[in-house]
């Protein structure tokens, strides 16, 4: 559409109109299917519960604004310090990572309601068991995806747009690492949202936004584009290394902070091992044909990290649970 009209404002207005029309249609369908929503003769919510909800909503506002600033300012810093050309090149990579992340977040986010139901039972042992399963699944998905991003993205961009649109390998490395780090926040975020923990840690996303802004501006002068993303990684690892254990992990699971730290560092070590192993194999297995190289890289990313993960975790409870989910999914599709 943009190619045909060459009018970006028109495209934005069209997107706005379509989103408005979508919301109106959803509202009408909801009113028709669930008429009790408009029923005004309802019992008023207990004042104590209402105050708690309002308090948590105020806290959630801090999280929304902080998250917007963290991920929104990166693009502004890149375009301001490095120019629109670099921002344009990076946007191609961002499109790939955002699309992949949106899919994975839907998979992870789908378990939030069930986690909320589980938390109402206040069974700390069972809650921790679910956390271990969810963390393992996220680790598998995001480590495998991050490795794929690093190895497959360059051949894909070359096929799609050409060599002139490639970023350096160093930048791509930081993109892949950032994808993994942000993805490994998902399990704790699910439990945080399910438990309604927003007010207690309301200043954490604000601190993250400010720290990320300062770190990105400082690092971009020395490392360029990679510095912006590295600033985001550092802020995430430091702040959420403090926030998640204190406000979510310890209160919900009644475990020591050291348990969380050891868990995350263990997964990080294994990720680095998988990453290096796959990159080494990919480096030695390289062909000159662009299409052949692209397909070969995909095959390598499908086999090496997954084979190593199976080898390392084949006897673990988390792997057996993950395997049962995958088997159940295939059985459902085949029936």
From TrEMBL:
The keyword Cell membrane applies. One of its GO terms (cellular component) is plasma membrane. Keywords: Cell membrane, Membrane, Transmembrane, Transmembrane helix. The chain crosses the membrane at residues 6-26, 61-84, 133-153, 165-181, 226-244, 265-285, 291-313. It is found in: Cell membrane. The keyword rRNA-binding does not apply. InterPro entries: Poly_Biosynth_Transport (IPR050833). It is a multi-pass membrane protein. PANTHER family: PSMA PROTEIN, PST FAMILY PREDICTED COLANIC ACID TRANSPORTER. This is Polysaccharide transporter. It comes from Lactococcus lactis subsp. cremoris. The lineage of its organism: Bacteria, Bacillati, Bacillota, Bacilli, Lactobacillales.
């Amino acid at each position: 559409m943009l190619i045909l009209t060459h009018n970006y404002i028109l495209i934005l207005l069209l997107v706005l109109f379509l989103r408005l029309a979508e919301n109106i249609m959803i509202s009408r369908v909801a009113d028709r299917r669930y008429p009790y929503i408009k029923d005004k003769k309802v019992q008023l919510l207990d004042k104590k519960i209402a105050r708690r909800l309002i308090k948590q909503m105020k806290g959630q506002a801090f999280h929304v604004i902080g998250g917007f600033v963290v991920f929104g300012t990166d693009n502004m810093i890149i375009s301001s310090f490095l120019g629109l050309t670099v921002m344009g090149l990076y946007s191609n990579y961002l499109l790939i990572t955002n699309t992949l992340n949106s899919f994975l977040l839907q998979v992870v986010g789908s378990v939030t309601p069930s986690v909320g139901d589980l938390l109402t039972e206040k069974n700390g042992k069972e809650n921790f068991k679910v956390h271990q399963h969810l963390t393992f699944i996220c680790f598998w998905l995001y480590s495998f995806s991050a490795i794929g991003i690093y190895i497959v993205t360059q051949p894909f961009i070359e096929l799609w747009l050409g060599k002139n649109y490639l970023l350096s390998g160093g930048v791509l490395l930081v993109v892949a690492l950032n994808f993994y780090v942000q993805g490994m926040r998902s399990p704790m975020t699910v439990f945080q949202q399910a438990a309604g923990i927003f007010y207690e840690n309301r200043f954490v996303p604000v601190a993250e936004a400010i720290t990320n802004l300062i770190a990105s501006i400082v690092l971009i002068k020395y490392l360029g584009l990679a510095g912006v993303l590295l600033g985001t990684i550092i802020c995430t690892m430091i702040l959420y290394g403090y926030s998640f254990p204190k406000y979510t992990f310890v209160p919900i699971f009644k475990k020591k902070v050291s348990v969380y730290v050891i868990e995350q560092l263990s997964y990080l070590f294994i990720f680095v091992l998988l990453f290096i192993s796959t990159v080494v194999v990919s480096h030695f297995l390289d062909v000159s044909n662009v299409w052949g190289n692209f397909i070969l890289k995909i095959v390598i990313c499908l086999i090496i990290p997954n084979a190593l993960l199976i080898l390392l975790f084949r006897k673990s409870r988390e792997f057996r649970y993950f395997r049962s989910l995958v088997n159940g999914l295939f059985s459902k599709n085949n029936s």
